[in-house]
Structure prediction request, 289 residues.
Amino acid sequence: MRTVLVAGVGLIGTSVALALRSQGIEVYLSDPDPKTLRTAVSLGAGRTDPPSEQVDLAVLAVPPEQVAGLLAQLQKQETAIAYSDVASVKLQLQNAVLLLGCDLSSYVGGHPLAGRERSGPLAARADLFRGRPWVLTPTNDTQPVVLDQVLELVALCGAIPTVADAAVHDRAVALISHMPHMMSSLVASRLAEADPFSLRLAGTGAQDMTRIAAGDVDLWTEILTANAAAIAEVMEQVNIELSIAIKAMRALAGGGQNKRAYGLRELRRLLQRGVRGQAQISRQTAAHY
Prediction:
């Protein structure tokens, strides 16, 4: 791979560009916001003049609802040999690409599972993807040479490639990314109404729990909307356990001996399940590094 176009220079797009530049790849940048584009260029992410010939790969780092239209436009212009995106929802996007009649043979859906609570090019880092999973969702029409190009992109960014079906991907990220963001936002929304004394007592626990709630509202509205069905299924399960937790707390607060015994039993069960779940994700994370 010699040349790459990165369309969209927010956090992810600029981080991709910086990672590729660190590997000696010629990177061309585009973005509808001139100020954002100038910032990315000032960081050394790439150049803004249009490529003089077809690039090896175009990475579409734009909001999910814009990917299909941009892909159709770039393919019509024969901008690249291969195309990929970095959107965090894949099935709805794949359907939109099909609806617009895009060429699936030159396209591979992608999703690097890395990010920060801050957005924009100033938050970008060349090492953002190092050791992190990067899911690819090729279709039966995807040419092997195109998949190889996108696999090379993942390797150049230091990420770990994982190939998955689009629907399987969306169910997984509903559990490990989208639902946690919703829960973080719900907790943070309670803190928005907190009294000053409570806020003065807040420590790292509250900060850790609510950190991701600071994400871009417009972008996360798009992401959560596009994967709403899968997220709702996960949150319904959370709601069941939340109802049990509330019932247990009420029993512990004012019940008789039997009710208190029930409350204690259910509370311990929920906490123990939390310990097991956290241990599983910690082991998985440790295995990546």
Summary: Residues 257-288 form the longest helix (32 residues). The two ends are 26 Å apart (CA to CA). The mean pLDDT is 93.
